[in-house]
Amino acid sequence: MEFESNETNDLDLGVEKNFRQYTLFDICKDPGLKDDEGNEVPRPFTKNQMRKWLKKVRWENNKQGKRAKEKARAKERRRNARVANIDLGPSRKTLKKMKLEKPKKDIGIIIDLSFDHLMMEKDRFKVIKQILRCYSINRRSETPLQFHITSLGEKAKSDMSRHNGFENWDIEYHEQPYTEIFPKDKLVYLSSESDNVIEKFEEDTYYIIGGLVDHNKHKGLCHKIAVEQGIRHCQLPLNKYVNMKTRKVLTIDHVFEIVVKVCEGVPWQDAILDVLPHRKGAYICNSSNDSNTIDDCSKVQIVHDSL
């Protein structure tokens, strides 16, 4: 690969000499790379873009080494746990075997990945990270749910390919949108903007979570989509069981985990309080009526154990 540089006298075709190491700041143009078929692969050329590109290259080069270190740390952790007689839960190998043996409930969760065009790269990575946690939660559940990902585009595939073996996860991947796969009367979109409050999850029904990290830039988008598509929509009963200091907008994995826990038989209030992060500052509601006012909630803030 060749770079055009501001240095004009470094190259002398007639004399062999040692070339100095170019830095990022010497580069004014990047001609790009070519793939195995000879097609030019576009590459960024601004200094900021090059920094990002070099960061990706370093990440790819170090990925196997990091994975090996993670395995070594996990092995050491298990060894120390055995000595201290501490149960760390099932191993990865056991979980892989369990996923074939555990019967799944006739309830499905769909993560809708049709929002790639609305997110920056770092936000797309956050979505994938939350999907990783959803996968882990479902694998460890005693009654796992049917897990689907729809509208899996090229960007999402590229983002997920950063995690080796993702195609072998116990997830059903679909390139098509959910409306082309499931009957509309079986679909329910979970949205905090909906006026409908869910109390129980129905059998033979698929609940959709929007795969969007937008920092409130596209407020109400999932609800709007559900209305336009003519499918049912509802919100979790957060107001009925807890009150929070912050907005009642949860991450993908928080919604997923609450749904899984409730489907396992955990009461709504216990499931919500167990999943909500510390920063939400949740308050317990004394009453179980349908009122959404703060008066129904106790003024004693929940203190989470930090251990």
From TrEMBL:
<keyword id="KW-0489">Methyltransferase</keyword>
<dbReference type="InterPro" id="IPR016653">
    <property type="entry name" value="TRM10/TRM10A"/>
</dbReference>
<dbReference type="GO" id="GO:0005654">
    <property type="term" value="C:nucleoplasm"/>
</dbReference>
<dbReference type="GO" id="GO:0002939">
    <property type="term" value="P:tRNA N1-guanine methylation"/>
</dbReference>
<feature type="binding site">
    <location>
        <position position="190"/>
    </location>
    <ligand>
        <name>S-adenosyl-L-methionine</name>
    </ligand>
</feature>
<feature type="binding site">
    <location>
        <position position="236"/>
    </location>
    <ligand>
        <name>S-adenosyl-L-methionine</name>
    </ligand>
</feature>
<keyword id="KW-0808">Transferase</keyword>
<dbReference type="GO" id="GO:0000049">
    <property type="term" value="F:tRNA binding"/>
</dbReference>
<dbReference type="InterPro" id="IPR028564">
    <property type="entry name" value="MT_TRM10-typ"/>
</dbReference>
<dbReference type="InterPro" id="IPR007356">
    <property type="entry name" value="tRNA_m1G_MeTrfase_euk"/>
</dbReference>
<feature type="active site" description="Proton acceptor">
    <location>
        <position position="214"/>
    </location>
</feature>
<keyword id="KW-0949">S-adenosyl-L-methionine</keyword>
<protein>
    <recommendedName>
        <fullName>tRNA (guanine(9)-N(1))-methyltransferase</fullName>
        <ecNumber>2.1.1.221</ecNumber>
    </recommendedName>
</protein>
<feature type="binding site">
    <location>
        <position position="222"/>
    </location>
    <ligand>
        <name>S-adenosyl-L-methionine</name>
    </ligand>
</feature>
<dbReference type="GO" id="GO:0052905">
    <property type="term" value="F:tRNA (guanosine(9)-N1)-methyltransferase activity"/>
</dbReference>
<feature type="domain" description="SAM-dependent MTase TRM10-type">
    <location>
        <begin position="90"/>
        <end position="283"/>
    </location>
</feature>
<dbReference type="InterPro" id="IPR038459">
    <property type="entry name" value="MT_TRM10-typ_sf"/>
</dbReference>
<feature type="binding site">
    <location>
        <position position="210"/>
    </location>
    <ligand>
        <name>S-adenosyl-L-methionine</name>
    </ligand>
</feature>
